[in-house]
What does this fold into?
Amino acid sequence: MTDDAAVVLEPGRQIQTLDELTDEQADAVLALIEDAARTDGTTAVSEQGRLQLRGGAREGIRHFLLTSDGRLAGYGQLEDTDPVEAPAAELVVHPAMRGRGHGRALGTALLAASGKRIRVWAHGGKSAARHLAQVLGLTLFRELRQLRRPLGEYTAPLPEAVLPAGVTVRTFVPGTDDAAWLAVNAEAFAHHPEQGSLTQRDLNDRIAQPWFDANGFFLAERDGEVIGFHWTKVHAEQQLGEVYVLGVRPGAQGGGLGKALTAIGLRHLAGAGLPTAMLYVDADNPAALAVYAGLGFSTHEVDLMYRTES
It folds into this structure.
């Protein structure tokens, strides 16, 4: 672990910039994130960001710990792994420590560390986050919508899964299908750096999570080659089923495979007794929004990304 900086902002408040966290520090950050989520109704740090709290140093990842009188009051993460896009950041301040300038201090530190070229997520699009973005001189860049639809016998019927000719579907086998899935994922999300750049380490992180269930991870094959997939996820505490990741290899698109895989996953989640399904989609993807609207989904909340002008 390296301590790149311990910047004193005012008496009793400082920010440490670290390449990796100890287990104790990671536990404290996760507790802070959970406390904030209970207050805000949404998680301020993404799943990828939370996974990156453990497992040692990761290339391009830096952690920012803001303490006030020795107490962890805020956390920020900077991810500089995209060769083209500006570094991406997330930050959160403990609910009991808000209104004291900690968010602005963290944001300023992240902005400085990025070379004043940054993208910042505001999950849930809360007014305080929008205000902080304005204070830091950031402009709205991206809107990610969370869509939901009810499941169950008293809701709109789920679509039938009609597979293209020659396509079969089976479930993912960890350790056997890893390379094939990573390859298809990279092709399907070549335009989406956050998803398309996932590595074996990222996949391993997710397989190790308590929520992982290979029975809800579907692979579509033609002539023994993986051409698409639908990975579902269950949020047990919230009783939510998620269309976690759904992708089709570019050469296999346009034949109805995506719709069929969506139906297979939704039927799996409904069969597990979950009352609601959710998914994320960019607001500037009208084709996907139209497809999901036709499947009974509607907007539940939005995540906003802000960036510096460059």
Q: What stands out?
A: The two ends are 32 Å apart (CA to CA). The CA atoms of residues 171 and 215 lie 6 Å apart. DSSP finds nine helices and 13 strands in the chain.
